[in-house]
Amino acid sequence: MNYLRKHAALAGVLVALMLLGGLLRLWDLGEQSLWIDEGFTMNAALSVHEKGLPILESGEFYRNGILSVYMITFVEKVFGIDPFSPWPERLPAVVFGTGLIVAAYFFYREIFKDKVGALILSGAIAFSYWEIAWSRQARGYAMCSLFITVALTFLWRYSNSKRPCTLALAITGAILAYVSQESALAFILIVGLMVVIFAHDSKMESASRSFAPAAALAALFGISMLAQAFLPNMRPLRFDDYFNSLPPELLVSMCGAVTAWIWTLRARQDRRAVSFLALAGFSSLVLILFFSPAAQSRYLFPLFPIFIALTVYLARNAADYVFKGLGSCSCVLIALALLAALYAPFLNLLPRSTYYLESGSPQPDFKTAYDLIRKNKKEGDIIISGFTQMHNVYLGEKGMWLKMNFNGPASGADAKVINGFDYYVAAPIIVDFEQLKKVLGENTGYLVLDSMTDSRWPEIYPYFETCGCAQKIISDRGAVGGASIYVYKF
């Protein structure tokens, strides 16, 4: 009877965490404006509605997060499309982000055989500001994170059982992570490395088994450094690009993960499990740091459960070791107090309508801007901006593109030009400021200038402020993360 009561209590807590976490993710889901990358996904979903495949108007096949694109298309068929209240498009992320709360429990329990620690991890995922924020976006990051967590759970099980069906499930999870978000390609490569190390580590000597993961990580870092130095067209690596913009809860968790790995020099019984997770997290981190197209902390988001799991492990074991004479309940409370001291500033316990994502994901109020244009636009008016997918999503037209490099000056703007037209909607391109002035002089319409476009086209704002040729009808200096947006009627 006590056994049943204990399990019922654990199940009840897990269900409560799932319900509360789901509520925080669902709350006022359609209120916040679409941001730039959500526009990419919804634009691809519109192509799926029309053609059955995410083939853009430019003729290009949209590959990034193809599973999330199809999920969003399905939900739109059920609930309809309204870019001014895009809760249906965000619903798949809510479902997978809420599912991660449950998956994290089984993930931790499988690896560390610790149900209390598993509940603590689930609670951290349920109330993490960063987790909630990315579980409310029409993108594949929450989906990717869930599939990575599931893949690691089965990969660990395979490393102990050597059952091919378990390995097949792990590989399937890794592939689903990749088709949810392309940055998970790094994780797929790491799965192969981990199979080699952990599926055969029982044949190694004890010392080799302990240090093989660390040696593999060091070798991977060295190879990545050589690739950075000698391969052409590599994005210049600047660690400060990442670490200056890392969400603080991720940075805390990464420090906790490193400390947990060091801790297992003492706690030998958990060394293999901790090394397994540390290798998965930090090897994927190295590949993303070196080979991602831009330095965006959101690419690291799917790895967050790995690092926070190691931090929970550290708190649990440190409390048990230091206060072992106080009893198990007291040690649990002490571990919770340690984690609360670390994570309290990063938890979100109350529902809210808007969330700031990161400095590399500008969130200007496109909704208000395009709603005003929709209500006032006359026949023959054209739309000009740096993000043509927003023209198509909000207004159903191509407009004209202010050609710019989305990923910064070092990465080749022409990647988004297809046969002389914009990649996303095949819009005509404005290549320089002189051409822009000519277009303004020959047409009427609206120019949408957000903070990212302003940074690529610094001539536009001072020109419109002094030329007298356009009326500024929206001036929003950025309620969310300072991402401003201006709308000019010319």
How would you describe the overall organization of this protein?
The chain is of the alpha/beta class. Helices cover 61% and strands 6% of the residues. It contains 20 helices and eight strands. The chain has helices at 2-26, 36-51, 66-79, 87-112, 115-127, 129-134, 141-161, 164-180, 185-198, 206-230, 239-243, 248-263, 271-291, 304-322, 328-343, 366-376, 388-395, 433-442, 451-456, 460-467; strands at residues 382-385, 400-402, 417-418, 421-422, 429-430, 445-450, 471-476, 485-489. The strands form two sheets. It has a six-stranded mixed sheet, with helices on both faces. Strand 3 and strand 4 (421-422) form a beta hairpin. It is elongated, with a radius of gyration of 24 Å. The protein starts with a helix and ends with a strand. The relative contact order is 0.11. The mean pLDDT is 89.
